[in-house]
Amino acid sequence: xxxxxxxxxxxxxxxxKTAIVGTLIVLAVALMVTGNxxxxxxxxxxxxxxxxxxxxxxIVHGLSSESFSLVAMGGGNTEIPLLPSFxxxxxxxxxxxxxxxxxxxxxxxxxxxxxxxMASFTLLWGTDFSAYRRMFPDTVDIIEGAYPQDDGxxxxxxxxxxxxAEKELGHRIALGDTVTLGGFGAGGTRLRTAKxxxxxxxxxxxxxxxxxxxxSAGTLRSLKGMTMKPAVPQNAAPGHSLSSGGAATExxxxxxxxxxxxxFGDPNSLxxxxxxxxQGAQRINxxxxxxxxxxxxxxxxxxxxxxxxxxxKTSPSASVLGVQKSLRAYLTQxxxxxxxxxxxWGAGPVATLALSLQLIFNIIIFIILxxxxxxxxxxxxxxxxxxxxxIGTIRAIxxxxxxxxxxxxxxxxxxxxxxxxxxxxxxxxxxxxINGIGIQSSNVxxxxxxxxxxxxxxxxxxxxxxxxVSTVGIGVLSSLYPTAVALRISPxxxxxxx
Amino acid sequence: MAIISVENVKKDYPLxxxxxxxxxxxxxxxxxxxxxxxAGPSGSGKTTILNLIGCIDTPTEGVVKIxxxxxxxxxxxxxxxxxxxxxxxxxxxxxxIPVLNVYENIEFPLLIGETGIPKQEQKxxxxxxxxxxxxxxxAKHRSNELSGGxxxxxxxxxxxxxxxxxxxxxxxxxxxxxxxxxxxxxxxKKMNRELETTFxxxxxxxxxxxxxxxxxRLKDGVISENYRPQGGVV
Lengths: 498, 234
Description:
The structure holds two protein chains of two kinds.
Chain A: H1 2-13, H2 15-53, E1 58-62, H3 86-95, E2 99-114, E3 117-127, H4 129-135, E4 140-145, E5 154-158, H5 159-169, E6 178-185, E7 188-202, E8 212-216, H6 217-224, E9 240-242, E10 248-250, H7 260-264, H8 269-272, H9 274-279, H10 286-290, H11 294-300, E11 309-314, H12 320-334, E12 338-342, H13 343-347, H14 349-386, H15 388-396, H16 401-437, E13 439-440, H17 444-450, E14 454-455, H18 461-487
Parallel strand pairs in A: 3-8, 5-7
Antiparallel strand pairs in A: 1-11, 1-12, 2-3, 2-6, 2-11, 4-7, 5-8, 6-7, 9-10, 13-14
Helix pairs in contact in A: 1-16, 2-14, 2-16, 2-18, 14-18, 16-18
Chain B: E1 4-15, E2 18-30, E3 35-39, H1 46-53, E4 61-66, E5 69-70, H2 76-86, E6 87-90, H3 102-111, H4 119-132, H5 148-160, E7 166-170, H6 178-195, E8 198-203, H7 206-209, E9 214-219, E10 222-227
Parallel strand pairs in B: 3-8, 3-9, 6-7, 7-8
Antiparallel strand pairs in B: 1-2, 1-4, 4-5, 9-10
């Protein structure tokens, strides 16, 4: 192919120009491959770490106008919506093809009070301990104690929270101690006690995850006021509450949603029935006096079907996206106010941070590429103007405009693709070296991103693919203007006496 | 029928705010197989006439017909095809492609467009032309390794490789010493006789003009003489 032959020989003929432009592309592509491989390694590591240890592959959750996620950052005061129609939803999810395991969770936050003294703060995941252990068998490192065996008010306290509490208190917190959890929310402040069954650390934890303690679901529900009839309606407009069945029921009309009559019976019953007093003065039936207390009971009885999240693990052969699609279809079909998100939603700010960093990095790379395109374009324009006679001659002896166009584009593409491949090789070598040495995290921020103290990146297919696509893009873009200049060269220029 | 027909052609060039009239209305015919010289001093319009005949420039007024086709009616693509198939060019500065060797330079016009010549015939034809111009042993050399005369021989072979009906040569001996120039003219004359290709060359060298069998002499953009040294109709 004569066009390619001319392109290659021209590149070799003008070695210094080729070297300058080629080096620029090699460096830009090497930077792209290295940077994106590191970013991809971070993201892949985060994904693997979070989906295998904390979030599962998918998370079914309710909808809220406020931002929330499974792993909350900060105080954890956001009201997290309940999953609607939980029993039937859970059953449907478990029956979905490709789903291998599920785990419902309640999420919240509490202050840790020891001997009436505020000791620390902890994020809480309320769960069934044995189910949690089945879902994430290799996630937790029990430092002292063991997973609770009974359904009582048990707490597996984070070692990090324990250490901060002990520092605050000035004495040790021991296994078997009973602590008080103080919860805050729209329904007011609640205090619940729990027995410390053990102390643990997440094996692949980070500053964010290390604040999480595990507590029995019932205790956390009680702390959050997730009762059969919540005093403050959840997932519903004011004046309505959602029962576990998801159907909105009319709530009492008083301020907090509970009427005195409903809670304590008819207040006039004592006054209007003096006979009852006189006739049974020695045997007062308080149930009769207080009336029907079933509503009151409903306000204090914990709702066993109140969950915030349903974590889903897919089978290795299943497509996570396919399962997500099926679950979304189910939610839509049932008209449920819930969503199905992946690990990155569950990881919350950490995943967003990783994505944002990659975005910022790629914006910087884009700017470098634009500069590279301008430099290459300028060099090619100079090259074209130096070859006016040659191009004019080709036009004069019968070379059409498509031939000239191909000649310039091939020359640019040959240079950019060859240099791009060189950049990929250099980038791969750099990643190999970085992998061998390892990037040490210098602070908590990087520790969260790296998923540990050292990051050992590997070359990602995506970074190589997109780098090569970029080099082709550089080639095509930077050849546009020089080609236009070349096409304007008239065959008359061949007759120039030089 | 004349292979080239120029009818009342004018060519103006803008030069700053003024218009320069390079050719001021010339008419002539060139017959097939002619070895014709367009002679005249510098600035007389020789190169402009060659450009117009070679379809690499368009007249401001008038008609140029190549092999019976009026060139002003053709699209850019058709003009390119006409140049490729019908016209061969020999330039004063040789204008070889510097990154190609002798063989590739001669072959080049065959590779940039369709000629209808079968591949095997193309190879034989290139070998024949290389032999004719005496460059067979230089086939693998690049143009910067050749002398001026050798380069012009490559240009002659390249101009003939598509078997054109017309070869235009713009002062082909201007950059050569007189002995080499004469040798080049002899070669062109030989090819003209053997292949019956029409050769049109511009020159201001009277010794070279004497070799032509048809002379058109220009002065200040108009024809001052149009004659055949051996006599005959022009």
